[in-house]
Specification:
The chain is α/β, with parallel strands linked by helices. Helix content is 37%, strand content 14%. It has helices at residues 17-21, 24-33, 46-49, 73-86, 99-105, 126-132, 152-164, 188-202, 215-224, 238-247, 257-264, 278-281, 313-316, 320-334, and strands at 8-12, 38-43, 60-63, 90-93, 112-115, 172-176, 205-208, 230-231, 250-254, 268-273, 289-292. The strands form 2 sheets. The protein has a 6-stranded parallel sheet with strand order 8-7-6-9-10-11, sandwiched between helices. Helix 4 runs parallel beside helix 5 and helix 7 packs across helix 10 (238-247). The longest helix has 15 residues, at 188-202.
Length: 338
């Protein structure tokens, strides 16, 4: 049978930051086979749409705000009509449990539809699992590297920030205390201890990052330190954050979006994993360090709430000394240079 050539491809994934960045290898694989095709992606917000603003492989990012404007049928119908007029000939649906997403898929009928199925009985990274969806096209899982292009404006923002704060030529280590689910968070007290250790022992400049919701965490950390790290929490958009992380020597973080942003711009991470499974969602690429506590009876649990008698024991057993040692390993391998 002669292979079908696709010219207009729609990817549906109204997910979080990490979910979307973990799709970039699949986008790259699609472009590798259909280099002439327009590839569009349906995301959940203008903020996450920005992740693809400068991606040369993505034609456009379309916002499907199912909890906001597209809660109304009239707005959803207008979005359906927009997709209908685009005439997609291939749709890859990574949100198979969302009925509204299926309604939007119908705008492209008749077309070919591929549907993602999450691996449940085997251990496989989400990046590979996503790429497996493309197997019917003859595309096999390949290079898993994530991609994110901050763009010239965000790059200038980072250059100006580093210059204004005397960070050029310094060892700069970012720490990210936040996470969507509290079970994935390291304690603010331990982050504060680590910040002082990095400043005192490694002579590093420490930068606290995160979203607006993480500002109270950053305030607690700063108030517990003597080194007084710089605070960027809640002050950047996603592209500015990406450009900042691109200039940092490394990032210390839990399992959350900024971890994937850092790996996508080529920055090494020390990833702190408790209940989450690093085999599934760990940092992609080489040179990273994953720290997990040993001898915690309830692991792996993959839960979003802790039922252990010792709350978040899996995170609390990761010590500041363990993290500092991992940081030293990475800086030693790279000589502290970006």
């Amino acid at each position: 049978m002669r292979p079908v050539d696709y010219n207009n491809i729609l990817i549906i994934k109204p997910g979080a930051i990490g979910d979307l960045l973990q799709l970039t290898p699949a986008i790259r694989a699609l472009h590798g086979k259909y280099s002439h095709a327009h590839i569009s992606i349906l995301v959940s917000s203008a903020a996450t749409a920005a992740l693809f603003q400068h991606n040369p492989l993505v034609h456009e990012a379309i916002v499907f705000d199912k909890r906001g404007v597209h809660r109304s049928f009239s707005a959803l119908a207008n979005l359906w009509l927009r997709l209908y007029r685009a005439r997609y000939d291939l749709v890859v649906n990574f949100q198979r449990s969302n009925l509204k997403a299926w309604f939007l898929v119908s705008a492209s009928f008749p077309c070919r539809v591929l549907v993602y199925r999450k691996a449940t009985k085997r251990s496989v990274h989400a990046v590979i699992n996503h790429m497996e969806t493309l197997a019917p096209l003859g595309i096999l899982p390949g290079d898993p590297a994530l991609e994110l292009y901050p763009g010239p404006e965000a790059e200038r923002y980072a250059v100006d920030f580093f210059r204004a704060n005397g960070l050029d030529g310094e060892t700069v280590i970012a720490i990210n205390p936040g996470a969507s689910h509290p079970v994935n968070r390291w304690s603010t007290a331990t982050f504060a201890t680590l910040a002082d250790m990095l400043a005192d022992r490694l002579k590093a400049r420490v930068l606290i990052i995160g979203g607006a919701d993480d500002m109270p965490l950053a305030e607690v950390i700063v108030n517990r330190t003597s080194s007084r790290p710089l605070v960027l929490t809640g002050k950047t958009d996603l592209l500015q954050l990406a450009a900042i992380l691109k200039r940092c020597n490394l990032l210390v973080t839990g399992d959350t979006g900024p971890m994937h942003i850092a790996t996508a711009v080529g920055t090494k991470v020390v990833a702190l994993f408790g209940a989450a499974d690093p085999v599934r969602t760990g940092p992609v690429g080489t040179g990273h360090r994953i720290l997990q506590a040993a001898d915690v009876a309830c692991l792996p649990c993959r839960s979003r709430s802790c039922t252990n008698n010792v709350q978040r024991e899996c995170m609390e057993k990761i010590t500041a000394d363990m993290v500092e040692a991992a940081v030293r390993e990475i800086l030693g391998e790279k000589g502290g240079e970006r």
